[in-house]
C-alpha cells in the first residue's frame, strides 16, 4: 500500500511516499480503505520530533483521523458495521502501525463508527479526533445547563465544535473572533462574540462581569492569561500541556479552580460518543468544515499551509 510518512524529523520536506505491506484485520479488528485523512496540528508536532514515539520504528506515519470504506472484518468481531459501509475513526500515530496517512488502516472495532450520512469522506474525516477533543473538554469541565462557557480559538475546527456542542448542552457561550471570523463564529452560534487579542480576559469579563464558569482554551493562549476571566470555583480545559503559561497551583487552590489537560486518547475507543457526534452532524448540530483537499502525495504542501495559519476548516489528504 501507499503511505505518507518520514524517517527523520524536520520540516514539511521530510514527508514522502512509502510503499508498505498491506495490513489485514485480526481478531477484534476491522480494516478501513482510507479515502481521506485530515492534517492536524498534532501531525506537525510528530513530524518535527516533538511527540515521543517510544519504540515505534520508522517510517513514522502521521494522521489522527481517517474516513473511508470498511473492507475487512476480523475473526470473531461482533459489530453492526458491514463491508462497504462508509466509516470514520480516530487513529493514534504513536501505535506501532502508525497513523492515518495510509491507504489502509487496521483498528479495534471500538474505534470505528459510521460516517455521517451524505457527508462524503473528506468532511467525515474532520469529525473523529477534533469532535472527540471538543466533547472531552466539555465533559471534563462538567458544566450544568445554563452555565457560561468561554471558548478561545472559536473559528478553528476544535473551537468551533466546542461552541456547537456547548450550545447543544444548554450552555451560554462567549467566544473570541478576529474581525474576519466574527460572522463565522456568530453563525455557530456563539451567544456573545468578543475580539481576539492580548486583552481577551478583559473582554470576557466585560461580557460576563464576575467571570465565566469555564473556559476551553482551543487557541492555546495559556491558562495563566485566562484565569482572571474565570469566576471562583470555575474551571479551565487546555488542549496541550503548558509550562510557563499555566496558572499557578497556588491560584488554583486560592480560587478553587479546576484545571484539566485534555488527552484525547482517553476517548479513542469510545465508539458510543463518536456515534453520538455522527448523529449530531447529521442533524446539523455540528458543522463539518473542510478548508481544502489535496492528494496524499502533496502532504508536505498541506503541512506548510497548516503551519502558515489562517485555515478555517481542516486540510484533508485524499488517498
TrEMBL record:
SMART domains: PKS_ER
Keyword set, alphabetical order: NADP, Oxidoreductase
GO MF, one annotated term: oxidoreductase activity, acting on NAD(P)H
Pfam families named in the record: ADH_N, ADH_zinc_N_2
Enoyl reductase (ER) domain: residues covered: 10-317
Record flagged with keyword Phosphoprotein: no
Database matches in CDD domains: MDR_like_2
Record protein name field: Zinc-binding alcohol dehydrogenase
Phylogenetic lineage: Bacteria, Bacillati, Actinomycetota, Actinomycetes, Kitasatosporales
Amino acid at each position: 500500500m501507499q503511505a505518507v510518512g518520514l524517517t527523520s524529523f524536520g520540516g514539511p520536506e521530510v514527508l514522502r511516499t512509502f510503499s508498505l505491506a498491506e495490513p489485514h484485520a485480526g481478531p477484534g479488528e476491522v480494516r478501513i480503505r482510507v479515502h481521506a485523512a485530515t492534517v492536524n496540528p498534532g501531525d506537525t508536532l510528530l513530524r518535527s520530533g516533538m511527540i515521543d514515539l517510544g519504540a515505534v520504528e520508522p517510517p513514522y506515519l502521521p494522521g489522527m483521523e481517517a474516513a473511508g470504506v470498511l473492507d475487512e472484518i476480523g475473526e470473531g468481531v461482533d459489530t453492526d458495521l458491514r463491508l462497504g459501509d462508509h466509516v470514520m475513526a480516530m487513529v493514534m500515530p504513536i501505535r506501532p502501525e502508525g497513523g492515518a496517512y495510509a491507504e489502509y488502516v487496521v483498528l479495534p472495532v471500538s474505534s470505528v463508527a459510521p460516517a455521517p450520512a451524505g457527508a462524503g469522506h473528506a468532511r467525515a474525516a474532520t469529525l473523529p479526533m477534533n469532535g472527540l477533543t471538543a466533547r472531552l473538554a466539555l465533559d471534563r469541565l462538567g458544566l450544568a445547563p445554563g452555565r457560561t462557557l468561554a471558548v478561545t480559538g472559536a473559528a478553528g475546527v476544535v473551537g468551533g465544535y466546542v461552541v456547537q456542542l456547548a450550545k447543544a448542552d444548554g450552555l451560554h457561550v462567549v467566544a473570541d473572533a478576529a474581525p474576519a471570523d466574527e460572522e463565522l463564529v456568530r453563525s455557530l452560534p456563539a451567544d456573545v462574540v468578543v475580539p481576539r487579542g492580548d486583552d481577551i480576559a478583559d473582554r470576557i469579563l466585560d461580557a460576563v462581569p464576575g467571570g465565566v464558569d469555564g473556559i476551553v482554551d482551543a487557541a492555546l493562549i495559556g491558562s495563566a492569561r485566562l484565569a482572571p476571566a474565570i469566576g471562583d470555583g470555575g474551571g479551565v480545559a487546555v488542549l496541550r500541556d503548558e509550562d510557563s503559561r499555566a496558572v499557578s497551583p497556588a491560584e488554583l487552590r486560592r480560587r478553587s479552580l479546576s484545571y484539566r489537560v485534555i488527552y484525547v486518547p482517553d476517548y479513542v475507543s469510545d465508539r458510543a460518543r463518536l456515534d453520538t457526534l455522527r448523529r449530531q452532524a447529521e442533524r446539523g448540530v455540528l458543522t463539518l468544515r473542510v478548508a481544502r483537499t489535496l492528494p496524499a502525495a502533496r502532504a508536505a504542501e498541506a503541512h506548510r499551509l497548516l503551519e502558515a495559519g489562517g485555515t478555517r476548516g481542516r486540510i484533508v489528504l485524499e488517498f
